[in-house]
Structures are given as structure tokens and as C-alpha cells.
Write a structure and sequence with these properties.
This protein has 294 residues and is an all-alpha fold. Helices cover 77% and strands 1% of the residues. α2 runs antiparallel to α4, α2 packs across α10 and α5 packs antiparallel against α12.
Length: 294
């Protein structure tokens, strides 16, 4: 990777890491459903001119069913689950839960696509699971309370991202990536539009929450997708996916700087274990053994 490409990767991680901070700010006033509905609408409206310029509507029309599924599992469902999680959890902790997506992708690939699990990937899954348990233990007990439900919501979001990655690889790998990005935002917005009137904030929304919502849609969604797909084109998906390691770093950093959040020992240990698991399941960290589990 060139210096400019490396800087773009860091910028992408900073933007996506900041999304958890903005959700933490806007969700209490907007509510998860209204926030994500507007985020998808703004993201779609911002990305649409780029699709028009690239004339990508043919791919969108031809593969709309698959793009709809990706829109649900990569935008509509995980976005609202993560927004819900930020009602209880810190932005930093939510970003760490988001980092489980590559681990779930490996698990979904094994169960659904019959992809082989190497010893490396199996070890990564185990490390990730231990990391998740560490996060649960950090709240003091394993009782089913608001914190536990929020953590579970974050994990289900990661599972959706993992499924979307596997589905895209299986059915949409030859589809224009910008068409998938724009189409996924369009279908997410389309799903939320009919119910938005029932979930609009009852109280006046602060200027801070409005700005956070706009930034989530225009910057953390639209601009981030443009950078991400540019990197995929220039350096390939294997190197681009390394952004997953940096997002929690920025998620925790922004939360500490702007929201006065604290990095607890359980968060630190859990994050290290989860990121080590991500490294092993994605092949960045490798063992010498090549044995597989059938």
C-alpha cells in the first residue's frame, strides 16, 4: 500500500469509529428507528449522484433481490441494533462488539457455505468467544439486564454483517460495488419510510442530535462507502478489511475524548481477544498448522 492509501485506510477507520460516538449522541433523542431511517435516507441521497455518474442502475435492477437482502443484513438490521446498543453501552464498547463481524463471517461460512475451518480459524473463533465472555463479565455478572441485552444486540449486528459478507461473496461478487452500496441504502430507507411517522421523536430534537444524524448519513455512511470501495479496487479486499482492526481503536478514542468515556480493563482484554480472533479468522495472524476441521 502507498502512503496515500494507508492514510485513506486510517481515515476510513476514524470515520467508522466516530459513527458510534454520533449514535451515542443522537439515539437518546431520535430513537434507534428514526435515527437509522434518516441515516439510510441521507446515505442514499448522498450516494445517488455517484451511481448516476457511474451509470450503475443496470446492476441494481438486475440484482435487486440480492441487494435487498444485503440492504437488510448489512444496513437496516445491524444499524438499528447498534443504535439501540448505544442507549446503554458506551460508544467504545459498541465499536468493540462491531469488530466481531469477521469472526461471525467465518462461522457463517462454515455452517452455510461449508467452508473449511483451519486450525487458525478455529483458534480465532475460540479467542473471539472468550473475548465476548470477557465483555459480559465486565458488567459484574451474567444476569439478563439492559446491559446484557445491549451487548447481545451488538453481537446480533455482528452476525448480520457476517452473513451479509458471505452472501455478497456468494451471490454479488461480480456486481458493481457502488450499486450494492447505493441499493442497500435505498432498500433500508424504503423499509423504514412507512414506519418512520410512528417513531418520530415526541420532544424537540437538539441541534447537536440533528448534526450527528446528518454526519452519520453523509459522512459515516456515504463518504465511508466511497473510500472503502475505492480501497477495495486499488489494494484489494484482503488489505481493505484490515480496517476492522482500527475501528475499535478510534471508537474507544473518540468516546474517551468527546464523551468522557472510560476504558475498563474488561473492555481492553475483551478487545484484544476479539481482535486477535479477527486476525486469525481473516488470516492476518497465522499459525503454521494447515489442518482443517471438516
Amino acid at each position: 500500500m502507498t502512503l496515500n492509501q494507508t492514510l485513506l485506510l486510517i481515515l476510513l477507520a476514524a470515520i467508522w469509529g466516530a459513527s458510534f460516538m454520533f449514535m451515542r449522541v443522537a439515539t437518546p433523542e431520535m430513537g434507534p428507528i428514526a435515527l437509522i431511517g434518516f441515516r439510510a435516507l441521507i446515505g442514499f441521497a448522498t450516494l445517488l449522484p455517484f451511481l448516476l455518474f457511474r451509470r450503475g442502475f443496470a446492476d441494481l435492477r438486475r440484482h435487486w433481490q440480492g441487494i435487498f437482502i444485503v440492504g437488510m443484513t448489512n444496513t437496516a438490521i445491524p444499524f438499528v441494533l447498534l443504535a439501540y446498543a448505544t442507549l446503554t453501552l458506551s460508544a467504545g464498547l459498541t465499536s468493540i462488539l462491531n469488530a466481531t463481524a469477521p469472526i461471525f463471517a467465518a462461522l457463517v461460512g462454515f455452517v452455510w457455505l461449508q467452508q473449511r475451518l483451519t486450525i487458525n480459524k478455529t483458534t480465532g473463533l475460540m479467542l473471539g468467544f472468550i473475548g465476548i465472555l470477557t465483555l459480559f463479565a465486565g458488567k459484574g455478572d451474567f444476569a439478563i439486564d439492559a446491559t446484557a441485552i445491549a451487548i447481545f444486540a451488538g453481537l446480533v449486528a455482528g452476525l448480520n454483517y457476517g452473513f451479509a459478507a458471505c452472501y455478497t461473496g456468494k451471490y454479488l461478487s461480480k456486481v458493481n460495488s457502488l450499486s450494492v452500496a447505493v441499493g442497500s441504502q435505498f432498500f433500508a430507507a424504503l423499509v423504514y419510510l412507512p414506519i418512520l411517522p410512528f417513531f418520530m421523536p415526541e420532544q424537540a430534537v437538539s441541534e447537536q442530535a440533528i448534526i450527528a444524524t446528518i454526519v452519520l448519513g453523509a459522512i459515516c455512511t456515504a463518504l465511508a462507502y466511497i473510500i472503502y470501495f475505492y480501497l477495495i479496487k486499488e489494494v484489494g479486499p484482503d488489505k481493505s478489511i484490515s480496517v476492522a482492526y482500527l475501528i475499535p481503536v478510534f471508537g474507544v478514542f473518540w468516546g474517551m475524548i468527546f464523551l468522557d468515556e472510560q476504558l475498563t480493563m474488561s473492555m481492553l482484554i475483551g478487545a484484544v481477544l476479539i481482535l486477535a480472533g479477527v486476525g486469525m479468522t481473516t488470516g492476518v495472524l497465522k499459525r503454521k498448522s494447515k489442518k482443517v476441521l471438516d
